[in-house]
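User: Hi! I'm a student and our assignment asks us to look at how structure tokens line up with a sequence. Could you show me two examples?

Assistant: Happy to help. In each example below, the sequence comes first and the structure tokens follow. Example one:
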Amino acid sequence: MCVRFCPLTAEEAQAALGARGTGRHAIRYIEAPDPLHDARPGSQVPLFVPDGAGGLRVATLEWGFPLDGRPHAVFNTRIESALEQLRLGRRGMWAKAIAEGRCLVPVRAFYESHATEKAVSERTGKPVKRQYRFRLPGARAFLLAAVQQDGLFSVVTTAPNASVAPVHDRMPLVLGPGEPSVWLGSSFAALANRSRIGLIVEDGGRQV
């Protein structure tokens, strides 16, 4: 599951929208993102959402849906579950969000925790699961598929590809070139397979 990623600022997200099709680099490259600025469930994050006129706009939304009185308890959406709810017309948590609220999260990187490897937390001094950072080769930023509703959003996850599988049994639905429009269009279900997306795997750095 994705519980941490390196978001863009609202200014960077807006600049990226303005630079589309111009060839300009609106986002600066950062070799080692600062963990203090990472997003976690409950964070306010700038996203790209449809503007209703065939374009996109930047909207700042809160990461995570509530469950049983716990805010931000559900911060990932299994695409398999959402598609099943949509197919059967069920009134599940994701039925409306996957049908009407598909959106895009611009990130520099995302993290996954290893199932067995441990590292010492700098904050508590206790052993925690070692985190690995994943980036898209040659990209200053890239997009994750997400769903949103009522000011909240959730990162969509799918089965891991060869890059992520040694670390975790799920991964965010990372979008490659040309795929953001597919995710926002009617053929979005075809994107569940991420085997063709190659990622750079890095040590997650500071363990918090």
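Example two works the same way, sequence first and then tokens:
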Amino acid sequence: MSSLVIVDNGGGNVASVRYALERLGVEAALSADPAVVRAARRVILPGVGAAADAMQRLRASGLDRLIPTLTQPVLGICLGMQLLFQSSAEGDTQCLGILAGRAERFPDRAGLPVPHMGWNQLAPQRSSPLLAGIEAGEYAYFVHSYALPPSPDAIALCDYGQPFTAIVSRGNFHGAQCHPERSGSTGARLLANFLALDA
């Protein structure tokens, strides 16, 4: 049994996530095998690309049915976080339905190009072990065109012409719209906090 499994879902950020974990002294297995994912003590669902394609890969492996039943800590990153929610306007995609909400595309606004790409500040909304040591105003790195609106499960927001969910947590399911693997010391702290959660 691996203590940490990264879901092999075709995400382009897998290598950088694994490298960020290695910097924290943790090796992660990469797998799309439901039995391997089920047995892991912690699971990371990465993602870069389109929601419909990602969900198709999860359905093909049966992980779309497994992931919502997991009881160990799960962390969705970027698209992986969006997949934890009910749906995405990107391709009108039904997602995993673990969290309530629908990812919507940022509207076109002068001076705010889509995708939202680059460093932006986090605004913690409430205390959470996932945010331990992360202060208001710290910067994280984002690359995304779709975002979740603020919700009761949002523990940190960000603003890009409108507030959106930057980090989410409910029960054993957690998500980061930012890329912690590319967010310097703030991202390293977020990953370390996830690894410290009770499994």
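Here is something you could point out in your write-up. The chain has one domain: 4-196.
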